[in-house]
């Protein structure tokens, strides 16, 4: 045990009733030795002749929490902290220390504690690290330092004496030192000379008096809160000002008293022990020109190794022993007046702020004209680096040399690193100007600043900015929280003065102001804190005084202060750097000030780099810190996760009367990061609780409401602990039971355990009784092919009596693999020859380990791939690479093959089945079971079997919804829910991370809402907006087929979502699935009557072809679940097997082909006569977009006409077309099941005849029509009935609020007043339809306000369209919606150069070849192949009349731009009049025209 610690402990024992030792983790021996030392002492008595109580507390048990209660009983308490190296003990104690010193304010004596703290030494320089001590400097405790065994013992005694005599609690700190130097012990009689029994009695009496609420004049308690007559306000300002050096007079008086008492104690101590100490000591030349000011053991080091050895001409050392209270006068009295240069040296390691605390104290002291009237010396700031004893003298000499040089470095390290050059100018300290910092902030951080501007407008006042990246390096003092805090305090003060002045003027009749001015001033006084009314009455005052200028000096002054009338929204903006030094920085000032000040702290540490961040640095959770402190509004938000939550938080923070801290997440690696990167990082952080979204509003608690609102799913452990402690959690769970599994159980471990046990033993039951050889089947599969093969193998094995288990490779505990006798791997190929997601970990391990021997195992591998996926010759290596690699590796590890490697190729006649059929028998043969079981093998279940067995789409959906153990539904139910308009998805951005954490995928559901013809009411828009907000991912998607789409709905919210949708008279039934889907119809009513009639037809045919099952109602709306087959539904059109595949209908009204009528299974082209009367429809059949890359048997197709029908025949025709497809469509191969293949397999005439024979009449010959484009018609149009329509541009149909783009809010505001309808367009835009002339202006204004009237985009952007793709679509191979805008921006540069800005060119993008955004009719199309890689198609018809063709495969962004640039250039120069880009590329020979779908692959 260290001698210093012993010295302090002995004194503590002698003068306390109660001693706490705070147990630390390292080094362990310290605790036990200090405890045994104190136990030894127990044989003795303390100075009151009693045996004190000794308690050992754990540092994680919040040991300070009850201290103030015990102190208030008059106990003499010491706390000993033998080491602070773990658990942030000091930082966590800060709120409690404040409580203790606050209980000593205003004539109260709540009792004073003495805390002895031993600091661990830094290895590089053997000096203690004072970082944490410095964070305590505003707590109101006195801070006293000692060095070495004897001094520590002496100072410990002095500390206790100070506490008793002043009532101020004391922190006494010293370095842990191992010197076994002798300490002169104090006997109780010695001690009593310094601490008399009468002192203790007086101390206790004063506490009792305080408890009884009697005031006593005798004691000062906290040096910055000693008896005081000023208002709370002033006191707080004084406390806060303390750091900047502007102490109030009152405060200094109190400090004077403290110093007088303390000096007397030092004198008395000298008389008693004959050792003398000073509060501040100076060594060196009295005429020094350069001095070092320092605090702590470093001072002793310098003194011994330099000042005591060297001639100290004109140089000196000022050693500070008492750091708090801080007296500028005291300090400067000890500084020679000859000083020109000062170096402040601090023991903070590592340093996290540019300007250290002591430095700031010293600077402000020299700026105090009362005590240092001359010119302030040049002050530099430094810290101790790695120091070797024998070179200290050299280093110090260098330091003085630097000080005396012409341009000394202002920021330096004494030791290892020599003087670092910094260019900061100390003038920054005097600069109190506030600036608008928004422009100078990093690009990516602007979203929050934009939002502040949006929300608070002119009321916004930002006092500072500190948004720089590099940790520990504040660029300027202006960026520090202290600076911002100071500025805001002075603002508050200015406004308080104005309030005083106005109050006096209103009361003072002698001034003789007008009645109106009197009324306005009085009203302003009443409402000065109301943002709206303060503006209103402030405006009135300004108006009155402008029209009759004042003459009275007080009124003139009021007028001059008119910019203070409106209640400001005051913000300090900072970076997460501040979290490294919360207690030490102004963050703490704000938290503890009680002032109505808001702080926005932006954290930009990306989730994926969090562990790589400097582990030495301890970043603290400011939110937790503030909540611990109490009465502070705290919110943790992330704009890329929820705009609405940020909005709520900003508004609530502003409204909260007191300090507010908003922690805002905006992760990025560099300024060049794309939005997608920021979005992904945000999602990862929010999803797994690293950055929980929450709001903590103490005001709500006062109103009896729950103060904590959890806005994200998961919560981090520390926060959970906090809530537990605060007992709020119990209440929260009681009132919101749905949080329970999220919060109370450890989600991670629960699911992990579950998954493990599933993986290990799920099949044990199944296998009981089987006798054949054991077989483990492991698969790697992204989209289900390989998994399907593996599962079939398992069934085949079971049928043959083989003990087979089957699971994903990554789910298998790899350490057991050598024990497996027979192994079969089925693995697909992903990316470019990569392993699929659920096999990567397994491969990583097995490809690098040499520890596994498979000498006892036999194995077989079947790989799935596509030999044409990467068609270039040199890319052949990627074909089935994982299967091949795995096969080779297993051999290398000693395994013997059951059978040779099998390969499935998508290019084979039957795809991978071809290869599999050949390979499978070999496997059974090798296992010796080839003759068994084939007959008993279960036949493969088809989708039709599934439909039939589902009891009209019920399946086990209802039961699945009740199962809370997983966020997913069973595989079969996920197929069925599609018929209900619901797709199970998972957030693919989170897959890897969740997998790494052993969590199941982030399952969520996409809900598609059918809107025939795309027309919905304003009330329905509002309802959808609200549902998205409540249950979805906040945004709404307008789809390419005129439906609403919600994303991110969790299973537990699914039912309520569907209910709410139905409540607003919309529904989701048949929005997906093998049925007729949402019926599309041109939404822009140029010819009103025709349009109304066609719309009516759209609604009717949609209703006519809807499934009749009651399952939808039963599962989602009724709650009455009918078990088994009790209810027999009847589907007159579909029967129990429904259609072979989806079926799509669109109705176009020429000349606009916005619906892409030929891209649908069934198309109606409306024909009107010259008077605008609907004659009927040309009917086209067999259109469809979907195909599979490189699979020539699949292709997109355009519909072909089969004839004309009258309006009253149209439903019948539609029904019959669908029924022919129902009966003839291919039900054995889903890739070949769409109507286009049914027709192509026979021919169009056959199809027409089949339809006509079912109709009983012939279709008429086609009527003439003309299409001009397939785009939306933007802007204002007026219908024949005089009603107005406005078509706005919504990029990719995504309705979302983003900083600076409040599309969702804007449309919500419009929906509240709009009397017409909301029409979803086929190009994902929106029409506000049927606006009466008299309402147009109001709508125009709202459109303008929310910038929704902006149509000044380039022609290419206005004609761009993308599907959703990543992160939700399970089939996406590449980005689409999130990326197309970026690609278009890059193309726009080329377009502008070519002068094609206004030219309409259609460009479409999809994440996979399924074609949801109808890419194959676009003039330019990019279809995802792999991440960042697209196939480029060119030559589609401008009005949807021609398919495009593959131009080049596997292009990255640069390649796409490189290919398109020369074409666009030539198009600009060489096109014919009116020639479209799609036609041009064909004419110029870039591409052949595609005539029929079957030609699509012919290059
Ligand atoms: C994005 C993507 C990349 C692919 N890359 C390759 C490849 O590099 N080499 C290959 O042989 N097959 C490749 N394929 C083909 C797949 O391996 C093949 O379609 C397989 O059947 C898919 O199996 P799964 O459904 O189990 O994921 C790729 C497929 C996709 C979707
Ligand atoms: S086109 Fe492909 S990636 Fe895009 S939404 Fe449709 S299925 Fe998903």
UniProtKB/TrEMBL annotation:
Region (Disordered): 229-255
EC number from the UniProt entry: 1.8.1.2
InterPro entries: CysI, Flavdoxin-like, Flavodoxin/NO_synth, Flavoprotein-like_sf, NiRdtase/SiRdtase_haem-b_fer, Nit/Sulf_reduc_fer-like_dom_sf, NO2/SO3_Rdtase_4Fe4S_dom, NO2/SO3_Rdtase_4Fe4S_prot
Pathway as given in its UniProt record: Sulfur metabolism; hydrogen sulfide biosynthesis; hydrogen sulfide from sulfite (NADPH route): step 1/1
Name of one Pfam family that matches: NIR_SIR_ferr
NCBIfam families cross-referenced by the UniProt entry: CysI, PRK13504.1
Family: Belongs to the nitrite and sulfite reductase 4Fe-4S domain family.
Listed name of the protein: Sulfite reductase [NADPH] subunit beta
Organism in which the protein naturally occurs: Rhizophagus clarus
């Amino acid at each position: 045990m260290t001698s210093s610690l012993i010295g302090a402990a002995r004194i503590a024992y002698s003068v306390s009733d109660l001693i706490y030792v705070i147990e630390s983790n390292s080094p362990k021996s310290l605790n036990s030795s200090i405890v045994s030392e104190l136990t030894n002492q127990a044989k003795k008595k303390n100075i009151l002749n009693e045996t004190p109580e000794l308690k050992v507390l754990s540092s994680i048990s919040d040991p300070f929490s009850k201290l103030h209660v015990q102190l208030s009983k008059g106990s003499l308490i010491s706390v000993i902290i033998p080491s602070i190296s773990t658990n942030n003990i000091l930082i966590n104690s800060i709120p409690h220390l404040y409580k203790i010193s606050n209980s000593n304010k205003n004539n109260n004596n709540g009792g004073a504690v003495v805390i002895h703290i031993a600091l661990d030494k830094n290895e590089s320089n053997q000096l203690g690290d004072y970082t944490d001590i410095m964070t305590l400097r505003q707590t109101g405790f006195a801070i006293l330092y000692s060095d070495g065994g004897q001094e520590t013992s002496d100072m410990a005694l002095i500390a206790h004496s100070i506490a008793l005599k002043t009532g101020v609690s004391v922190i006494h700190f010293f370095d842990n030192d191992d010197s076994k130097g002798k300490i002169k012990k104090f006997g109780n009689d010695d001690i009593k000379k310094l601490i008399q029994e009468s002192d203790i009695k007086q101390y206790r009496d004063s506490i009792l008096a305080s408890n009884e609420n009697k005031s006593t004049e005798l004691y000062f308690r906290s040096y910055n809160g000693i008896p005081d007559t000023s208002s709370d306000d002033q006191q707080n300002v004084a406390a806060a000002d303390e750091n900047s050096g502007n102490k109030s007079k009152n405060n200094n008086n109190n400090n004077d008293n403290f110093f007088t008492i303390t000096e007397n104690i030092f004198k008395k101590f000298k008389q008693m022990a004959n050792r003398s100490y000073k509060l501040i000591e100076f060594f060196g030349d009295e005429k020094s020109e350069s001095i070092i000011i320092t605090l702590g053991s470093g001072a002793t080091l310098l003194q011994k190794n330099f000042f005591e050895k060297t001639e100290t001409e004109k140089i000196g050392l000022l050693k500070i022993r008492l750091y708090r209270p801080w007296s500028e006068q005291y300090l400067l009295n000890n500084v020679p007046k000859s000083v020109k240069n000062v170096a402040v040296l601090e023991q903070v390691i590592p340093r996290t702020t540019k300007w250290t605390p002591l430095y700031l104290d010293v600077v402000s002291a020299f700026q105090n004209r009362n005590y240092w009237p001359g010119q302030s010396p040049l002050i530099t700031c430094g810290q101790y680096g790695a120091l070797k004893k024998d070179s200290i003298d050299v280093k110090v000499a260098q330091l003085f040399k630097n000080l005396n040089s012409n341009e000394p470095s202002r920021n330096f390290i004494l030791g290892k690193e020599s003087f670092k050059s910094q260019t900061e100018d100390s003038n920054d300290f005097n600069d109190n100007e506030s600036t608008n910092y928004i422009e100078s902030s990093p690009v990516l951080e602007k979203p929050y600043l934009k939002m502040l501007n949006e929300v608070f407008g002119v009321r916004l006042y930002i006092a500072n900015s500190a948004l720089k990246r590099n940790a520990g390096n504040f660029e300027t003092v202006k960026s520090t929280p202290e600076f911002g805090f100071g500025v805001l305090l002075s603002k508050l003060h200015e406004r308080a003065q104005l309030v005083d002045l106005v109050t006096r003027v209103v009361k003072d009749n002698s001034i003789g102001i007008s009645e109106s001015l009197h009324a306005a001033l009085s009203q302003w006084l009443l409402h000065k804190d109301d943002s709206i009314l303060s503006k209103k009455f402030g405006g009135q005052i300004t108006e009155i005084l402008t029209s009759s200028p004042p003459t009275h000096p007080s009124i003139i002054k009021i007028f001059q202060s008119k910019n203070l009338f409106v209640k400001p929204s005051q913000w300090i903006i900072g970076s997460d750097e501040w979290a490294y030094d919360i207690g030490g920085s102004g963050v703490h000032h704000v938290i503890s000030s009680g002032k109505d000040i808001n702080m926005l702290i932006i954290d930009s540490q990306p989730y994926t780099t969090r562990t790589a961040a400097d582990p030495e640095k301890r970043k603290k959770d400011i939110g937790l810190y503030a909540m611990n402190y109490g009465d502070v509004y705290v919110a943790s938000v992330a704009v890329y996760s929820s705009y609405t939550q940020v909005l709520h938080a900003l508004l609530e923070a502003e409204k909260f009367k007191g300090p507010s801290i908003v922690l805002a997440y905006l992760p990025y690696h560099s300024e060049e990061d794309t939005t997608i990167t920021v979005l992904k990082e945000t999602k990862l952080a929010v999803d797994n609780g690293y950055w929980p979204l929450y709001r903590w509003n103490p005001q709500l608690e006062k109103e009896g409401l729950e103060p904590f609102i959890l806005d994200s799913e998961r919560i981090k452990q520390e926060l959970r602990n906090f809530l537990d402690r605060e007992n709020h959690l119990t209440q929260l769970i009681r009132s919101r039971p749905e949080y329970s599994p999220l919060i109370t159980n450890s989600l991670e471990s629960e699911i992990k355990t579950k998954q493990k046990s599933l993986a290990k033993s799920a099949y044990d039951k199944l296998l009981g009784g089987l006798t054949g050889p054991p077989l483990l089947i492991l698969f790697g599969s992204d989209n289900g092919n390989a998994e399907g093969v593996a599962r079939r193998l398992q069934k085949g094995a079971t049928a043959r009596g083989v003990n087979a288990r089957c699971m994903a490779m990554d789910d298998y505990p790899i350490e057991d693999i050598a024990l497996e006798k027979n192994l079969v791997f089925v693995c697909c190929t992903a990316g470019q020859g990569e392993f699929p997601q659920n096999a990567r970990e397994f491969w990583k391990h097995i490809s690098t380990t040499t520890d596994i021997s498979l000498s006892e195992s036999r194995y077989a591998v079947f790989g799935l791939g596509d030999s044409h996926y990467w068609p270039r010759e040199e890319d052949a290596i990627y074909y089935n690479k994982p299967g091949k690699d795995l096969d080779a590796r297993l051999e290398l590890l000693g395994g013997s093959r059951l059978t040779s490697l099998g390969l499935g190729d998508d290019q084979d006649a039957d795809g991978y089945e071809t290869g599999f059929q050949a390979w499978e028998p070999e496997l059974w043969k090798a296992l010796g079971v080839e003759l068994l079981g084939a007959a008993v093998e279960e036949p493969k279940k088809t989708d039709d079997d599934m439909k039939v067995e589902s009891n009209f789409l019920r399946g086990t959906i209802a039961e699945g919804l009740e199962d809370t153990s997983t966020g997913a539904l069973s595989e079969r139910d996920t197929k069925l829910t599609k018929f209900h308009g619901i797709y199970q998805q998972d957030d693919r951005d989170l897959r890897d991370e969740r997998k790494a954490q052993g969590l199941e995928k982030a399952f969520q559901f996409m809900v598609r809402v059918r809107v025939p013809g795309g027309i919905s009411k304003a009330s329905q828009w509002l309802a959808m907006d609200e549902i998205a907000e409540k249950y979805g991912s906040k945004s709404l998607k307008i789809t390419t087929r005129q439906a609403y789409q919600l994303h991110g709905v969790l299973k537990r919210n699914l039912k309520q979502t569907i209910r709410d949708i139905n409540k607003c008279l919309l529904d989701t039934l048949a929005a997906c699935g093998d049925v007729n889907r949402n019926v599309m119809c041109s939404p822009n009513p140029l010819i009103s009557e025709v349009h109304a009639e066609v719309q009516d037809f759209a609604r009717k045919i949609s209703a006519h072809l809807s499934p009749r099952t009651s399952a939808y109602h039963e599962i989602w709306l009724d709650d009455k679940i009918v078990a088994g087959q009790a209810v027999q539904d009847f589907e007159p059109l579909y029967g129990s097997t429904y259609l072979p595949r989806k079926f799509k209908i669109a109705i176009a009204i020429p000349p606009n082909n916005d619906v892409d009528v030929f891209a649908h299974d069934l198309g109606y082209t409306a024909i009107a006569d010259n008077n605008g009367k609907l004659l009927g429809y040309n009917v086209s059949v067999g259109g469809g977009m979907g195909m599979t890359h490189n699979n020539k048997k699949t292709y997109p197709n355009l519909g072909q006409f089969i004839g004309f029908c009258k309006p009253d025949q149209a439903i019948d025709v539609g029904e019959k077309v669908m029924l022919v497809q129902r009966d003839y469509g291919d039900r054995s191969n889903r890739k070949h099941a769409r109507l286009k293949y049914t027709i192509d397999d026979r021919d169009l005439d056959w199809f027409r005849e089949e339809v006509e024979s079912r109709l009983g009449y012939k279709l008429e010959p086609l009527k003439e029509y003309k299409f001009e484009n397939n785009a939306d018609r933007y802007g204002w149009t007026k219908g024949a009935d005089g009603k107005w329509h406005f078509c706005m541009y919504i990029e990719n149909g995504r309705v979302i609020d983003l900083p600076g783009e409040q599309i969702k809010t804007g449309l919500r505001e419009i929906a509240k007043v709009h009397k017409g309808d909301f029409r979803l367009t086929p190009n994902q835009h929106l029409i506000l339809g049927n606006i009466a002339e008299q309402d147009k202006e109001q709508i125009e204004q709202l459109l303008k306000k929310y910038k929704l009237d902006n149509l000044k985009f380039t022609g290419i952007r206005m004609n761009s369209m993308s599907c959703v793709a990543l992160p939700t679509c399970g089939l996406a191979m590449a980005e689409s919606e999130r990326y197309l805008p970026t690609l278009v921006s890059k193309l726009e540069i080329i377009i502008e150069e070519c002068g094609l800005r206004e030219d309409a060119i259609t460009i479409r993008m999809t994440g996979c070849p399924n074609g949801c955004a109808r890419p194959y009719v676009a003039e330019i199309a990019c279809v995802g192949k792999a991440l960042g890689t697209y196939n480029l198609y060119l030559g589609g018809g401008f009005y949807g009349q021609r398919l495009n063709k593959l131009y080049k495969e596997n292009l990255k962004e640069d390649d796409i731009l490189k290919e398109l640039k020369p074409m666009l250039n030539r198009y600009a120069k060489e096109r014919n009049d009116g020639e479209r880009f799609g036609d041009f590329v064909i004419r110029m020979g870039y591409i052949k025209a595609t005539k029929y779908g079957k030609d699509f692959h012919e290059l």
